[in-house]
Amino acid sequence: MSKYKSKLVAQKEVEALCDRLRWQKQKIVFTNGVFDIIHMGHISYLSKAKALGDILIIGVNTDASVRKIKGPTRPINRQSDRAGVLSALEFVDYVVYFSEETPEKLIRLIHPDILVKGADYKISEIVGAKFVKSYGGQVKRIKLLPGRSTSGLLNSRMK
């Protein structure tokens, strides 16, 4: 498990990490989410996000923020398990928790070259898009695999 924990970065350390990566001319890609039950849709999305740059950083909602957003029955998996699974993926470079309802603060710390969300979002709906564009960064939308979502999986199991 220690191999996976090495990818977990504290929010207070992420800004310095990203400064070092930029100095090394690494293109930083950032995305975020709950990633409660990892499925093929996540794998496809995250591998495509990684292909856009050199370093993929994932912001993961803390358990408390997930409960605020999705209700008292979520998350299914606790944050340490969600971060551990993401860290085990070879195309994930770093994982950072955020406790706010949106990743705006984290995006401002990371200052990504490319901000990525699913194509189910309009650019105008993507948190941090305006900020990333303000310094010449890019905002990309990635087409999702049809019928692959954690909420969809959970709802189909409940029927």
Task: Give an overview of the whole structure.
With 159 residues, the chain is of the alpha/beta class. It has eight helices and five strands; from the N terminus they run ααβαβααβαβαβα. It has helices at 2-5, 11-23, 40-50, 63-70, 79-88, 104-110, 129-134, 150-158; strands spanning 28-33, 55-61, 94-98, 114-118, 138-142. It has a five-stranded parallel sheet with strand order 3-2-1-4-5, with helices on both faces. Strand 4 (114-118), helix 7 (129-134) and strand 5 form a beta-alpha-beta unit.
Relevant terms:
159 residues; alpha/beta; 5-stranded parallel β-sheet; 8 helices
Query: Order of SSEs, N→C?
Result: HHEHEHHEHEHEH
How many beta-strand elements?
5
Q: Uncertain spans, ≥5 residues at pLDDT below 50? A: none
Helical content (DSSP H or I, runs of 4+) = 40-55%
Which strand order do you get reading across the main beta sheet? 3-2-1-4-5
Termini separation: 36 Å
Our count of helices gives 8
The backbone outline, from C-alpha atoms, is globular
Task: Report mean pLDDT, rounded to a whole number.
Answer: 91
Largest pleated sheet = 5 strands, parallel
Give a concise summary:
This protein is an alpha/beta fold and 159 residues long.
Q: How is the topology of this model organized?
A:
Elements lengths: L1 H4 L5 H13 L4 E6 L6 H11 L4 E7 L1 H8 L8 H10 L5 E5 L5 H7 L3 E5 L10 H6 L3 E5 L7 H9 L1
Parallel strand pairs: 1-2, 1-4, 2-3, 4-5
